[in-house]
Amino acid sequence: MSPLQKIAMGLVIIVGRAVFPPDASPDWEVYDALPDPLGWMLVIAGAVGLARTDPAFGPLPWLAGLAGLVSVPMWFPQLNHHLDASGEWFASLPQLTFCLVLALAVGRAGADLEPADDYVAKRFGLLVWGFALLAVLPVVALGGEVTWLEDPTQLFSVLVNVALVYLLFRVHRREWLGGPGPLEIGLPSGS
Prior knowledge:
The protein has helices at 3-15, 36-53, 59-74, 77-80, 85-112, 118-143, 150-171; strands at residues 19-20, 31-32. By secondary structure, it is mostly helical. Helix 5 runs antiparallel to helix 6 (118-143).
């Protein structure tokens, strides 16, 4: 499994949500069957592999580790239900920072190639803007009490995170990102 595949699979676990039990009492006492700390372990493994390919990716394992540490207490409903919306935003900042730095590092690495990998540079450059906006929108929506912005912010968050996972899977085979190289499909012998 390539480093970007590990990161993408970890992010699927982190972003995905499968609550249990479905009819908890009190209603806040639900767990996520996709524990974020497990997802962060996959992300850290991928980030370490990616950092081995290029020193520019060096901060990623540390940022993933920080986000993973923050996710451990956030998995327990006995702790996370005490947070209001602004507290949840603050607790999500390490994850946002990791995703923003990942998109920035991959985009820059694609732009620095000779010849440049424009597909990677442009797509991940857009993701940088998306994650930067995700860091600011909740401040406006919650702090500025612009309540009509809360639902679009959540929708935008889902879209940006899904785009990141998709693009990580899309470019994972690139050798300069630690991937195995292009997929070679040959004809069966005897044809």
